From TrEMBL:
<dbReference type="InterPro" id="IPR013752">
    <property type="entry name" value="KPA_reductase"/>
</dbReference>
<dbReference type="GO" id="GO:0005739">
    <property type="term" value="C:mitochondrion"/>
</dbReference>
<feature type="domain" description="Ketopantoate reductase N-terminal">
    <location>
        <begin position="5"/>
        <end position="193"/>
    </location>
</feature>
<keyword id="KW-0560">Oxidoreductase</keyword>
<feature type="domain" description="Ketopantoate reductase C-terminal">
    <location>
        <begin position="230"/>
        <end position="361"/>
    </location>
</feature>
<dbReference type="InterPro" id="IPR003710">
    <property type="entry name" value="ApbA"/>
</dbReference>
<dbReference type="InterPro" id="IPR050838">
    <property type="entry name" value="Ketopantoate_reductase"/>
</dbReference>
<keyword id="KW-0521">NADP</keyword>
<comment type="similarity">
    <text>Belongs to the ketopantoate reductase family.</text>
</comment>
<dbReference type="InterPro" id="IPR008927">
    <property type="entry name" value="6-PGluconate_DH-like_C_sf"/>
</dbReference>
<protein>
    <recommendedName>
        <fullName>2-dehydropantoate 2-reductase</fullName>
        <ecNumber>1.1.1.169</ecNumber>
    </recommendedName>
</protein>
<dbReference type="Pfam" id="PF08546">
    <property type="entry name" value="ApbA_C"/>
</dbReference>
<dbReference type="GO" id="GO:0050661">
    <property type="term" value="F:NADP binding"/>
</dbReference>
<dbReference type="InterPro" id="IPR013328">
    <property type="entry name" value="6PGD_dom2"/>
</dbReference>
<dbReference type="Pfam" id="PF02558">
    <property type="entry name" value="ApbA"/>
</dbReference>
<dbReference type="GO" id="GO:0015940">
    <property type="term" value="P:pantothenate biosynthetic process"/>
</dbReference>
<dbReference type="InterPro" id="IPR036291">
    <property type="entry name" value="NAD(P)-bd_dom_sf"/>
</dbReference>
Length: 366
């Protein structure tokens, strides 16, 4: 039996993936010895208390469930393995109150990371010695640049570096309690190998246990992409995020309102032109990519399609600003600014919105 899948980061997306994996096991007839665990990694004791109060399960709701009062869950997933990180000082107290595993040293073969991008290296640090060249890490996050940071700070030796996967999930999920999810909109999960391990153009097979498990979940609608395909998908998502997210945060508006004034339209066009120029310079023009999938016209159509489909949504960046939290701007517009400087290309307007978001983060709202 495989050692199972570990999940680091239990925000909306982490809970959604955990639910999908475990629920798929519960609804599939499998011999007990063949069921590999899904382990939730908790970084603080308070999460254990929340876990206990919610019956050690993840509850699943749809918008229709919320029409009744109180809301009635559609389903739930239980039977998770739970591990508390950085808990040595509280070990005795915790062991007396919860079945959580403390200070496990066993290797981690399959890890899904859904933390905020800026928290990734700190979150991985306590378990880095349990990860090695035989490990697979799937980064399900916004933005680009995290894998380079993780390699530099945690896995500088390429010979002992895990295989990195990038994932993009377009499902709409939010929460109403620490271990509940409301599945507001369906959308696929795309994943593929990235980094130096990803040489070659063929789509990866499901030889990795993690890829196989994710692909078997009907809820997740997982597609395995080639290294080239996942990079292209990441860059398209980057352009979308680099326009919709900061504009909604700067103008304090819903996604569908980012084009509602001449000022917003003008800034949108300038951001799009800068982003498109940078990305086309980063990519080889094979199969006329510059004139087709990554032309300004094609990228504009993508941005406008997402803004229309999510018109009533509040972007994650605006949610972070409203809650006084740090945003992921460094890995979105900040990444484009760094690439523009490296390539000698203008990034004036991405720098402007980057600076504005940093000001909002600091609480200096005018």
């Amino acid at each position: 039996m495989e050692s199972g899948i570990y999940i680091l980061g239990l925000g909306n997306l982490g809970k959604y993936v955990a639910f999908a994996l475990r629920r798929n096991q519960q609804t599939t007839v499998t011999a007990p010895r063949q069921v590999s665990p899904v382990t939730l990694l908790f970084h603080r004791k308070g999460l254990l208390e929340d876990w206990e109060s919610e019956d050690r399960s993840i509850r699943y709701y749809t918008p229709e469930c919320l029409k009744s009062q109180p809301p009635v869950e559609k389903s739930r997933a239980s039977g998770f393995r739970v591990e508390l990180l950085n808990a040595t000082a509280e070990k005795h107290d915790i062991e007396n109150h919860t079945p959580a595993i403390i200070d496990d040293k066993s290797p981690i073969r399959h890890l899904i990371v859904t933390t905020k991008t800026y928290a990734t290296t700190a979150a991985l640090a306590p378990i880095k010695d349990r990860l090695n060249k035989d490990s697979h890490i799937l980064f399900l996050q916004n933005g680009i640049g995290v894998t380079d940071e993780v390699s530099h700070k945690l896995f500088p030796d390429p010979g002992n570096r895990p295989t990195y996967w990038a994932g993009i999930c377009s499902a709409g999920v939010y929460s109403m309690s620490p271990f509940s999810i409301i599945h507001a909109g369906r959308g696929p999960l795309m994943m593929g190998v990235v980094g130096t391990q990803s040489a070659g153009g063929a789509p990866p097979t499901a030889e990795a246990h993690m890829a196989s498990r994710l692909s078997n979940s009907r809820l997740l609608q997982t597609s395995l992409l080639s290294p080239e395909q996942i990079v292209h998908a990441q860059l398209k998502k980057l352009v979308i995020n680099a326009i919709i997210n900061p504009l909604t945060a700067c103008f304090n508006c819903k996604n569908g309102q980012v084009f509602e004034s001449d000022e917003r339209q003008a800034l949108y066009r300038l951001l799009l032109q800068e982003a498109g120029t940078i990305i086309r310079e980063m990519l080889p023009n094979s199969d006329n990519l510059h004139e087709t999938a990554f032309s300004d016209r094609a990228l504009s159509a993508l941005v406008e399609e997402v803004a229309e489909k999510t018109a009533n949504n509040t972007s994650s960046m605006l949610q972070d600003v409203q809650a006084g939290r740090r945003t992921e701007i460094d890995y979105i517009n900040g990444y484009l600014v760094l690439q523009g400087r490296r390539l000698g290309l203008p990034t004036t307007h991405h720098q402007v919105v980057y600076n504005r978001i940093k000001t909002l983060e600091a609480g200096h709202v005018d």
